[in-house]
Design brief:
Layout (H helix, E strand, L loop, with lengths): L1 H28 L37 E9 L3 H4 L4 E13 L2 E18 L2 E19 L4 E19 L2 E18 L5 E4 L2 E7 L2
Antiparallel strand pairs: 1-2, 1-8, 2-3, 3-4, 4-5, 5-6, 7-8
C-alpha cells in the first residue's frame, strides 16, 4: 500500500511540473503585435538646368552692343573772317560696353585741320589739331535710350600771316570739356557757341 501511494505521489509531482512548464511556454508566446511602420516616399527636388522648369528671359536693352561715331565740328580761329572754311570737322568713334549692369561709353579720336588763303597781298594759313576722349554712360530699354557723354578735348592752333612785308605767328593751345546728351537716334545733335556734335550710329 505504501509503494502504491509513493507511485501516485510521483505521478502527481510529474504532472504538476508538466502543467507548470506548459503554462510558462504559453506566456512566452504572448508577444505584443506592433503597428506597421509608415511608408516614407521622397519628394522630387528641382535640378539646375532641368528644362521642365521655366527660366528667366533676358530683357533687351537699346544700349547693348551700341557703337558709332560722334561728328565734332569746331570753329577755327578767325578763319571765317578771311574767307577760309570756318570749322574743323572730325569723327570720334565710340562703343558701349556692359559692366556690372551698367552700360559705359568709351571712345576717342583726332581732328586735323589745315587751310591756306592766298591773295595778292600775301598768305594766311591755319593749322588746327585736336584730340578728343569720350566717356559717359547709356541709359535705355528695349525701345528707347539716351547717350550721356563727356567729351574732353585738348588741342593747338597755329596761324601764320605774311602780308606786304609783314610776318606774324599766332600760336594757341588749350583744353575744353563738353557735357552732351543724345537720344539714341541717327543724326541727333547738340551744339553751343563755336562747336556742335552730330551722332552717327552703326546700327
Amino acid at each position: 500500500m505504501k509503494d502504491h501511494w509513493k507511485t501516485w505521489s510521483k505521478l502527481i509531482v510529474i504532472l504538476g511540473l508538466a502543467i507548470l512548464v506548459a503554462a510558462c511556454s504559453q506566456s512566452g508566446n504572448n508577444t505584443e503585435t506592433l503597428p506597421p511602420s509608415p511608408t516614407i516616399t521622397s519628394t522630387p527636388t528641382a535640378v539646375i538646368g532641368d528644362s521642365s522648369f521655366p527660366t528667366a528671359t533676358p530683357i533687351p536693352n537699346r544700349c547693348d552692343g551700341l557703337s558709332g561715331n560722334l561728328e565734332m565740328q569746331v570753329l577755327v580761329g578767325p578763319s571765317e573772317v578771311v574767307g577760309l572754311e570756318p570749322v574743323a570737322i572730325g569723327n570720334i568713334p565710340f562703343t558701349v560696353t556692359s559692366d556690372g549692369g551698367a552700360y559705359l561709353v568709351q571712345g576717342g579720336g583726332l581732328i586735323d585741320y589745315q587751310d591756306v588763303l592766298e591773295k595778292k597781298w600775301g598768305t594766311y594759313s591755319v593749322e588746327f589739331n585736336l584730340e578728343a576722349v569720350l566717356s559717359g554712360d547709356c541709359q535705355g530699354d528695349a525701345q528707347n535710350g539716351t547717350l550721356n557723354m563727356v567729351v574732353e578735348s585738348s588741342g593747338e592752333q597755329f596761324v601764320e600771316v605774311d602780308a606786304e612785308g609783314y610776318h606774324g605767328e599766332f600760336p594757341w593751345e588749350g583744353t575744353n570739356t563738353f557735357n552732351v546728351s543724345f537720344p539714341i537716334e541717327e543724326g541727333s545733335t547738340a551744339e553751343g557757341e563755336g562747336w556742335s556734335f552730330v551722332l552717327h550710329l552703326d546700327k
